[in-house]
């Protein structure tokens, strides 16, 4: 009898339990899908990183989560789960973040070699060339990421700037990217100030002038629209629309 297909989806609640996420992904033999609040649970270039979902309409479909038999979830923020293609299709097993490693020990099936989903490969095919054009937000995000000091954090408000940071920032450290799932006014600014008050170097990326105590503000101007090629692959922006 064939083994059931498995998906693994994590949200910001797992950031204090990254070792458990990594252990379970390896045990399941799958590339983990993270919502944007959980960027960095795997490095962007890890074979166990399956991509960031929830930003565009087709993200979860491209992640293959509408085709699995079992979906393991952990630490999700409902505001970041903008589509649910697995409903009425998969058995959903929600695991408390602190229990991830132990759940992996009980998983009965042998690990396989992870295969990256279209969420990673199809988006990389479109976004990759954008990194080579210094005028694009993707290139700006990568350039800024190279200047972020150890222990630093980048914060962006919801909207187009937040989209580009959440989609294209090449994350290597869990919790180093903050883009609120809520459109509550001032939430991103408060998150930036709170990080600075804890002694973390903070970059606040925005498209409007800001004056934030202890925070380096970077203002992006120019065209921030999502290019048609990216919309063709993953659909329109749906984050922050509810």
Shape: globular
The CATH superfamily of the largest domain appears as: TPP-binding domain
Helix proportion: 25-40%
Q: How many domains would you count in the coordinates? A: 2
List the main descriptive attributes of the protein structure presented here.
2 domains, five-stranded parallel beta sheet, 9 strands, 15% strand, alpha/beta, Rossmann fold
List the helices and strands and how they pair.
Elements: E1 6-10, H1 18-28, E2 32-35, E3 49-53, H2 59-62, E4 70-74, E5 91-94, H3 100-106, H4 118-130, H5 137-147, E6 153-155, H6 160-168, E7 177-178, H7 187-197, E8 202-206, E9 216-219, H8 228-234
Parallel strand pairs: 1-2, 1-4, 2-3, 4-5, 6-7, 6-8, 8-9
Helix pairs in contact: 1-3, 4-8, 5-6
Structural features, described:
- The chain is of the alpha/beta class.
- The chain contains 8 helices and 9 strands.
- The protein has 2 domains: 116 residues, 3-Layer(aba) Sandwich (Rossmann fold); 105 residues.
- Strand 6, helix 6 and strand 7 form a beta-alpha-beta unit.
- The model has no long low-confidence stretch (mean pLDDT 94).
Q: Summarize this, please?
A:
By secondary structure, the chain is α/β, with parallel strands linked by helices.
């Amino acid at each position: 009898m064939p083994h059931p297909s498995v998906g693994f989806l994590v949200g910001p609640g797992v950031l204090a339990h990254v070792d458990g996420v990594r252990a379970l992904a390896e045990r399941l033999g799958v590339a983990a899908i993270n919502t944007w609040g959980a960027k960095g649970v795997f490095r962007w270039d890890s074979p166990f990183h399956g991509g960031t979902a929830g930003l565009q309409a087709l993200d979860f479909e491209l992640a293959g989560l509408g085709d699995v038999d079992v979906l393991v979830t952990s630490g999700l923020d409902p505001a970041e789960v903008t589509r649910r293609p697995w409903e009425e299709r998969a058995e959903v097993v929600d695991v408390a973040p602190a229990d991830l490693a132990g759940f992996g020990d009980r998983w009965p099936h042998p690990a396989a070699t992870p295969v990256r989903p279209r969420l990673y490969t199809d988006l990389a095919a479109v976004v990759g060339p954008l990194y080579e054009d210094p005028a694009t937000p993707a290139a700006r995000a990568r350039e800024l990421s190279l200047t972020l000091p150890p222990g630093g954090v980048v914060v962006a408000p919801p909207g187009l700037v937040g989209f580009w940071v959440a989609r294209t920032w090449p994350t290597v450290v869990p919790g180093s990217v903050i883009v609120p799932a809520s459109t509550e006014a001032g939430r991103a600014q408060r998150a930036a100030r709170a990080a600075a008050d804890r002694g973390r170097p903070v970059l606040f990326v925005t498209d409007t002038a800001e004056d934030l105590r202890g925070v380096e503000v970077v203002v992006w101007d120019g065209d921030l629209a999502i290019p048609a090629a990216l919309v063709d692959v993953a659909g329109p922006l749906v984050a922050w629309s509810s």
